[in-house]
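anyone seen this seq b4? input:
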Amino acid sequence: MKKIVFGVLFMARAITANAQEDIPVATDNDTIGPWTKKGNASLLFNQSTFDNWVAGGENNISGNVGVNYDFNYKKGDWSWDNKVIASYGIVKTKTSSFAKKTDDRFEFNSVVGKGITEHWSYSAFARFKTQFTKGYLYDRTTEGAETREEYTNFLSPAYLFVGPGMLYKKDDNLKINLSPATSKFTFVDKGYTLPDEAYFGVKEGESMRYELGFNASMYYKLDIIANVTFENILNLYSNYLEETKNVDIDYQLNIVMRINRYLTTNLSFQTIYDDNAFRGFQLRQVFGVAANYGF
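predicted toks r here
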């Protein structure tokens, strides 16, 4: 736990020491306004058909829709940054009895800051995430028929993180928030719970799990070359109440390679480690050409 805290603080210090000083620009809030808003909606579609293809293959169709939206407030010493990420995707193959999800998430991040220096602020943050639809565990009978068992649903699980801390913000593309007293709430439908806290760490028959710990959130967006953008989102959490060395990790990488105003090649990668959900790394990756609309 100490190594994580020191490592994050060292990173923040290094960024601060090497960041160039920004030149303040006077703006008229009566004309421009304190709010900045930007977002992107994308639709990714893929279809493959095989007929007498001796090399092998399976007919399939898949699609993914996503929204990434920011609405930020800045006035005087106060800042309030908000981000919404929502996506949903499915795939259907010829031999599968069911359409299966390739993506399903809703996430809202919010950080309020009160400036104390040019780049550092006192802060309070909240993060909420869940899924939209039911999730299933898939299996096959001895006869080979595919079966599925309902395992998750909307708000089961759902996660809420809240806590005070310190925010380093160079600009809208580089932010680090450190919160040493973060409350984490895990909500589930108690009808899904299992013995030995096997369902997302929640006790059987209960609908919530509470944790208190250290949270570090980092956001870094950069243009590698012209029309190629990397967006990195990292969240780390360590529970003070039990197994402090066991750190929860949630890392997202969104790469957008712009073809023209409306078409991009998108790569989304996400890895999660949370031993209350699964004892190992969860991995998700989606790649394809997408139609985009900026707003």
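Confidence is low (pLDDT under 50) at residues 1-6, 8-30. The two ends are 41 Å apart (CA to CA). kinda curious what u guys think
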